[in-house]
């Protein structure tokens, strides 16, 4: 969901690197914070977004008097500064070399096939896709009758969207669906999903054991496998799918779902990070995944999506400021969940309905699930770090995976209990 680091592959310098198979680099790319103080100034920024693929916005351009961060390629700095000056738009340089913020990422990641060698999957490092898939496959062997490996769909490059169903009861229980990693660069999201899986299987905490026992869980750590692999091999800041569209690649898989598709908060430009695709469900990832989720209609009653970053908890809608019919219940669950998130480490979450709390964004999975699958409890977590962490948001240190998982487990436990109290779960 997070519309930050709106980095598009069209950067002319990056295009050279990527065509030769090298990793994308952001040497001497500057990051500025701008603030539009009037609708006219905001319109200048909106026009600038689509005018050059060497000037990329890190935040949605929706509000006046709100800081908006921008990445500017070295050769485009003079033009950018001239436009800011001519239109009297406030700006501040916050980083002169974006690449310096990304240098230590490789130290945070387990080497390929490390799980296969060590059989010790843990939450002290970020894992590549194949290792997480092997781990889930092994869980199905270690927990027969409890863990079932499930395929939620396919990708453009032919990968499976793999997940696990956890069912500790011998009878069918109300279902809870968890989707993570739909935006490739948000590594903490799949890491938190795997932490959740492990806790549901191994925790001795009574409240966690209760929600593990009394519900069927469908958990998919990687809803965008092609994109996630690409963040490891080529471009750490990649967000979208990998479907080719002319000279650009990928659509935003969280703007591509078939509910209020491309109404607001998305782009028709194939090079944009928020490209909605040529049509709803144009991406095989969202199309096949939605078909799987639809097959569970009548079985799942709570839908949870993990994103990063900003420390928000969000609920429908993203396409309009109009609120859902059951907003009072959603707000009640929100309050309880945010309070639980805060207890362990004092981590402060805010949020509310997507449109007002973060920015307009149509075609998102949580809205689609709310309207089409009967999951009237539908939430999106924007995980650590806070919205103030512009330069390090997507590269949360691996040392924070476990604390993030712990507090999120606290929050989800409270969420499930409150949804149960409100009577949304049905056998």
UniProtKB/TrEMBL annotation:
Its cofactor is Zn(2+). The active site is at 382 (proton donor/acceptor). Keywords: Carboxypeptidase, Disulfide bond, Hydrolase, Metal-binding, Metalloprotease, Protease, Signal, Zinc. InterPro entries: CARBOXYPEPT_ZN_1, M14A-like_propep, M14A_act_pep, Peptidase_M14. SUPFAM superfamilies: Protease propeptides/inhibitors (SSF54897), Zn-dependent exopeptidases (SSF53187). One of its GO terms (biological process) is proteolysis. Residues 1-21 form the signal peptide. GO terms for cellular component: extracellular space. Residues 125-419 form the Peptidase M14 domain. GO terms for molecular function: metallocarboxypeptidase activity; zinc ion binding. It comes from the Eukaryota. Gene3D superfamilies: Metallocarboxypeptidase-like, Zn peptidases. Pfam families: Peptidase_M14, Propep_M14. PANTHER family: PROTEASE FAMILY M14 CARBOXYPEPTIDASE A,B (PTHR11705), RH39904P-RELATED (PTHR11705:SF156). Belongs to the peptidase M14 family. This is Zinc carboxypeptidase A 1. It comes from Musca domestica.
């Amino acid at each position: 969901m997070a519309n930050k680091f709106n980095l598009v592959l069209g950067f002319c310098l990056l295009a050279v690197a990527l065509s030769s198979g090298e990793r994308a680099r952001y040497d001497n790319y500057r990051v500025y914070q701008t603030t539009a103080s009037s609708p006219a100034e905001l319109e200048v920024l909106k026009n600038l977004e689509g005018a050059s693929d060497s000037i990329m916005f890190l935040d949605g351009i929706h509000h006046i008097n709100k800081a908006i961060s921008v990445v500017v390629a070295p050769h485009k700095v003079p033009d950018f500064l001239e436009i800011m000056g001519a239109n009297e738009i406030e700006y501040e340089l916050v980083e002169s070399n974006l690449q310096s913020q990304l240098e230590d990422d490789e130290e945070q990641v387990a080497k390929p096939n490390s799980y296969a060698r060590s059989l010790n999957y843990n939450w002290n490092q970020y894992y590549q896709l194949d290792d997480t898939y092997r781990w889930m496959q092994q869980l199905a062997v270690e927990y027969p009758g409890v863990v079932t490996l499930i395929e939620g769909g396919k990708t453009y490059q032919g990968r499976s969207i793999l997940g696990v169903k956890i069912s500790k009861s011998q009878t069918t229980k109300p279902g809870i669906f968890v989707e993570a990693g739909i935006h490739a660069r948000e590594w903490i999201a799949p890491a938190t999903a795997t932490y959740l899986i492990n806790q549901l299987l191994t925790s001795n905490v009574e409240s966690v054991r209760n929600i593990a026992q009394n519900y069927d869980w469908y958990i998919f750590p990687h809803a965008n496998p092609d994109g996630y692999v690409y963040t490891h091999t080529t471009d750490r800041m990649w967000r979208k799918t990998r479907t080719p569209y002319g000279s650009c690649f990928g659509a935003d898989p969280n703007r591509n779902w078939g509910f209020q598709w491309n109404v607001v908060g998305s782009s028709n430009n194939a090079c944009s990070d928020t490209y909605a695709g040529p049509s709803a469900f144009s991406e095989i990832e969202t199309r096949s995944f939605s078909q799987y989720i639809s097959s569970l209609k009548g079985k799942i009653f709570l839908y949870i999506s993990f994103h990063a970053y900003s420390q928000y908890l969000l609920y429908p809608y993203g396409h309009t400021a109009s609120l859902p019919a059951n907003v009072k219940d959603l707000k009640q669950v929100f309050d309880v969940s945010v309070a639980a998130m805060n207890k362990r480490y004092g981590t402060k979450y805010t949020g509310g309905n997507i449109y007002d709390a973060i920015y307009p964004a149509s075609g998102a999975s949580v809205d689609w699930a709310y309207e089409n699958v009967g999951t009237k409890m539908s939430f999106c977590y924007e995980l650590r770090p806070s919205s103030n962490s512009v330069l390090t948001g997507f590269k949360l240190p691996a040392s924070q995976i476990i604390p993030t998982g712990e507090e999120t487990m606290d929050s989800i436990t409270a969420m499930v209990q409150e949804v149960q109290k409100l009577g949304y779960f049905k056998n």
